[in-house]
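Researcher: Next entry in the queue.
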Amino acid sequence: MIAQLNSMPLYLICGGIVAFVAAVCVVFMVRAYKAGIAIGMDPVKLKRTLTSSVTFSILPSVGILLGVIALSGSLGTPWPWLRLSVIGALHYETQVAQAAAEQVGLSTLSASEMTPEAFSTIALLMSVCIMWGMVLSFFFNKGYLKKLSGNTKEKKNGKGGFGDMAMAAMFIGLVSTYIGSYIGGFVSGKGVLTFQGDLTPIIVAFVSALCMAGFIYLAEKKHMEWLESFSIAGSMLVGMLAAILF
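Model: Structure for this entry, 246 residues:
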């Protein structure tokens, strides 16, 4: 099955879509550069901005590469490459793929158990579940942006708008769900707590959180704002290293 998932037709289909998206990015980059020149921006500063943007995009993209590698063993290389190159996110793709695999009867997300039917279901769910951001943005993005910006009174008082509160609540809920599942997998028993699960996810989450806290401290307290672009990828790498060492 893994040979079929890495077949040339899949590479051509997924590669063609990725190439189209990359071409659109290049077109917009060129148009933005020309628009900057047209309004009188310094060409030297524009080129410096391009160079710095490319530089600061390399390390954060390591997280995307790690996601492709992690999923390629079970879903082949073309499909994870497409999903994580266009609109996907590592935490979303792995979670939905694993959940879909369990629903189609696979004990784990692995190439040894993968079937054409299972892959079709997993790929369909990975695509359908994430497309609503684009669809809803088309209809409601204008009104949503007004909510994100907050009203004038909130800005004067130094308070964030609806977007700040929504994002904070979402991430608190997301982190609580993951940490809760890790603790639940480690602690079990009827009436009495019996520690018999795998401690690795808890350790990885703790180490990654410490690493992220370090990045935030350096960026905010030591005025090393450039580290913000590397915080997520750096925390992921340190967390993976902790898992390997443990």
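Model: The first strand starts at residue 187 and ends at 188.
Researcher: Noted, moving on.
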